[in-house]
Amino acid sequence: MRLPITLSEIGPRISAGAFILNSGLGKRGADEGTAAGLHGFASGTYPFLKDVDPQQFARALAYGEIAVGTALLTPFVPTAVAGAALTAFSGGLLGLYLNTPGMRKPGSLAPTQEGLTVAKDVWLLGIGVGLLTRGTVDREPRRVRKAAKTLARANRTAVRAARRAG
């Protein structure tokens, strides 16, 4: 049985997966102050989170990061699925960067000193989009080639059967 990933996908999946998994594991036991800080930062950008308990938010964030990191590190998870999870996760992080006051220089996408820690996560979005693309668009020719081989084999078998019968 072949794995649903290729050699070229291993490096990006390991680097992003290990980074995110480690982050999630570190947040599992967040104290009240840390949870309140994480919640305050996120709910300032995403108002629907204001009604969520900070401890519950920190726990959900931790387990979400653990799930995304694990999906990236597990070779049996198809690349398109892992890429979609990473793209969604990193899109949320970049939403924080783009919509939180003080993260960017006025009138620019360039980060301020405070925004640098979140802006660097753009590499996660790049990996996510790359994996998503690789797992969907770039795989189509492989499927077509495989179907063509299967059809050619079936045709050879049919020709042999026809020769024996005739």
Folded structure, characterized:
With 166 residues, this protein is mostly helical. It has one domain (7-139). The protein contains seven helices and no strands. The protein has helices spanning 7-27, 32-45, 54-73, 79-99, 116-119, 122-136, 140-165. Helix 2 (32-45) packs across helix 3. The longest helix has 26 residues, at 140-165. The radius of gyration is 23 Å and the shape is elongated. The two termini are 38 Å apart. The mean pLDDT is 90.
Features of this protein?
166 residues, mainly alpha
Quick description:
With 166 residues, the chain is mostly helical. It has helices spanning 7-27, 32-45, 54-73, 79-99, 116-119, 122-136, 140-165. It is built from seven helices and no strands.
What class would the helix/strand composition place it in? Answer: mainly alpha
**C-alpha geometry:** elongated
Sheet with the most strands?
none
Percent helix = over 70%
Helix count equals 7
- Helix and strand string, N-terminal first? HHHHHHH
State the domain count: 1
Report mean pLDDT, rounded to a whole number.
90
| Span of the ends, CA to CA | 38 Å
Low confidence ranges: none
Taken as a percent bin, the fraction of beta residues is: under 5%
Alpha carbon gyration radius: 23 Å
> Total strand count, please?
0
Give the helix/strand layout.
Elements: H1 7-27, H2 32-45, H3 54-73, H4 79-99, H5 116-119, H6 122-136, H7 140-165
Helix pairs in contact: 1-3, 1-6, 2-3, 3-4, 4-6
